Structure formats: structure tokens, C-alpha cells
Amino acid sequence: MPLSSALNYAPALQQSLSAAQLRLLHSIAAQAARQNLPIYMVGGFVRDLLLQRPSQDFDIVVEGDAIPLANALVQTLGGNLTAHSRFGTAQWQPHATDQNHIDLITARRETYAHPAALPTVQKSDIQQDLARRDFSINTLALRLDEAHFGDLLDPFNGQADLQNGLVRVLHPLSFTDDPTRILRAIRYEQRYGFQLEENTLRQLQETRSRLSLLSAERLRHELDLILREAAAPAALQRLHNLSVLEEICAALPWNPTLHAEMESALTQPPLPGWNLNPAPEELGYALWLLRLPRERIDEIQTRLRLPLDTYQSLCAASALRPQLPALQGKPTSDWVLRLQNQPLTALYALQLLNPIPELQEYAQHWRHIRPRANGDTLKARGIPPGKRYQTLLWALRAAWLDGKIRNEEEEERWLEGLVISEK
Ligand code: ATP
Description:
This protein is of the alpha+beta class. The protein has four domains: 1-164, Beta Polymerase, domain 2, CATH 3.30.460.10; 167-248, Hydrophobic Seed Protein; 267-362, no CATH class; 375-422, no CATH class. Helices cover 52% and strands 10% of the residues. It contains 23 helices and eleven strands. The strands form three sheets. Strands 3-4-5-2-1-8-9 form a seven-stranded mixed β-sheet. Strands 6-7 form a two-stranded antiparallel ribbon. Helix 8 packs across helix 11, helix 11 (232-241) packs antiparallel against helix 13 and helix 14 (280-289) packs across helix 19. The longest helix has 16 residues, at 19-34. The chain is elongated, with a radius of gyration of 28 Å. The model has no long low-confidence stretch (mean pLDDT 93). Bound molecules: adenosine-5'-triphosphate (ATP). Adenosine-5'-triphosphate binds at residues 43-44, 57, 59, 133-134, 138, 178, 180-181, 184.
């Protein structure tokens, strides 16, 4: 279906938003009109509305001060507000019980003290606010204040680029100013099946070495966003083809096998019985990097500073993977001894990549098998407390796991035998 080239999107808003959302937008618009403030819906919401992929992410730019408007909204409509006066931004959660929030932003312009620095911001108007953005497809704005409700503002021809499937920077120094945009460009390109516009592609290639100027946090944040995408493997492939991955860190791997395995792992339904809902980026890093030896992982860790949980899952999966063949044919208790205390996400990633019945059994059944007895039981039977309890309780659990104990009576007999031998 050809994308719309309408100039007013009031009908599209009516179609894609719920009645409650529309009422909310009109209430915000009415309040803005009372304060004589033009307001605009901007960014991802407008882009996705025009792509007929409605999102719930409301970003509103206010030509004037966003914080007094946000305060007035809380007074008339309630909800919670978090304001950042330094940036003139406010996050308003209209319903205390509902996590959905609306970002209200004072229109601003940005300047960069030096390339790759964080920008300096100054109050401005909508044109300048749109001019500071990354790509033309993110510069579309819909005016919301009453008489103009739904009017499209498109100073950078974003609508045409959406129609032509192009990711285009707004000026030749865009990637130099902010090299995170290199990763953002690929994320949008792959998410929507778009192309990088010709000059944008050239500028990206010319500036990719500037990725080395970015802090670990900013770089990792953009990689996290990529790993949260359904098209993550395709985006990593593209980053590899454009020599961006090697620019980020020479230890980051990519090859066709990895691509195919990651693609297949990420399109599987959740594995039954694991009771695990890992953050997509944590799972993504594990699937991407777990074949690497520890030294390589540590090189990557130095550059990206992954969160501790993610790093630990990755190290655990990397250490365990080469040991799995030796566990084949071993008693259940040997498996459990090796697998317990490992982050479940590490095992989940291994299982997604290369399913092993024992790993599935461990997650679904074995990890839950515990003896009835505990330290108190041993104490009550007159066994003196001490470090030995751990060994005895593990031996008891192992007997359950290996089928040597199958019910409470058998456990009872095992404990009686233990009391005799310990005395
Ligand atoms: P997504 O669907 O990925 O969340 P979004 O447009 O909502 O898309 P955000 O990361 O929430 O993306 O950013 C909101 C808006 O802020 C973007 O649409 C873009 O206009 C602008 N923006 C974000 N990061 C940058 C950047 N590094 N440089 C310039 N503009 C940016």
C-alpha cells in the first residue's frame, strides 16, 4: 500500500488511537491553547503513524516552556510528574496506575562544543528542534493545538523519505557530531527494511572511525537498542559489512554461521518450563558472544562495560559450552553439580543455540528436585552441625537426582543409614 502523503493527519490519529488517548491529546492541546503555546507530536510516534505502525510513545514538543504546561496538566488532569528544569523536559504519567507516560519537551536547539561531545542546549522553536534530530524520518511533527490539530510539519522531507524507504541524515556533519547515529541509522534501516541514502552511506563510511570517541555507556546503549530489535541479526550483519563492528571493538565476532544461529535462536518460541524472561539485550549479547574465549570477552567488556549480570551470563556460557560434551552419559547429579549456580540466562542461550535434552531436563525438572530433609533434620537426628552438612545434603540430593531415592520412605532409610555411619 503506498504511504499517505496527506498534509493533515487528524483522521489517521482518530483511527489509530483509542478514544481515551484522543481525549487525552485534546485535553493537552486545550491546555496548551489556554497558555498560548503551540505544541507538536514528534519523533517515533509520527514516523510510525505514517508507516501505519501505530506506537504508544508520545513525545510532545512545546514551543515555549514545557514545565509550566506539564504542571497545569497535573493540576487539571492529575497524575505524576517528573520535571528536569535544566533541560526543560517533563515526564507526565497521566494515570498513577498505568506506566504509560508522555514526554513534554521544551523546543530546543543543540550545539556541539566538539565532535562526539554531549550537546549544549538552548530554548528554541519547532524548526530548530527538528533540525537537531538524527534522520529526516524522525523530523516529522504533527501540530496538536486545536485549530491545527493533525497538521503535518515536514521541513526536511521526511514524508518522502518514508515513502521511498530512505534513512537520511540532515547535514553532512551529523555523524561527526554524534557517532551514535551510525548505529541508529542501521537500526532504523534494518527495522523498516529501508536503505541508507547515498550521501548518508558515504558519510557513515567516512566517519565510522569516530566511534572510538564514544564512551562505553553511549555505545553500549545503542547496541542494546539494536539487540532489542527483531531484526538484530540483520543489523549486526550490516554493521559487519560496513566494518562498523570492528571499529567498535576488534574482538566482536561476525560470520555467516553466527548469523544463521542467532536468527534461528531469536525466532524460536520461549522454551517450555524455564520460567525465564531474560532482557532481550542480555540474551542477545549471550547468543552473539558466548562462543568467544574469556580473553576476547574481557576485551569486549573493557570497551562496552556490559552490566555485571550480562557479563557474568556471558562468561558462564562461554566456560560451560566446551565442557558440555564431556558431561554426556554422566549421571544426573554430575549435570546438576555443574549447572547449578550458573546464571539461567547462560543455560537458556546455550540451549537455544544447540539444544541438549539434559539442559532442558535441568531447567524443567532437575533444578527443582530437592530432598525433604534439611539442616534441621540432620540436627534433630543428632548429627553435629558443621561444614559437613553441605556435603551430606548434597549427597542426599544426588541420591534423589540419580534415582537412588524415589520417595520419602527411601529418604528415611538413607538418613537412618547416615546416622549409623556418622556416629
Ligand atoms: P524508537 O522507535 O527507536 O524508539 P524513537 O524515534 O522514539 O524511535 P528515541 O530514541 O526515543 O527514538 O528518540 C526520540 C527522538 O529523539 C528520535 O525520533 C529522534 O528524533 C531524536 N533522537 C534520539 N537520539 C538522537 C540522536 N542521537 N541524535 C539526534 N536525534 C536523536
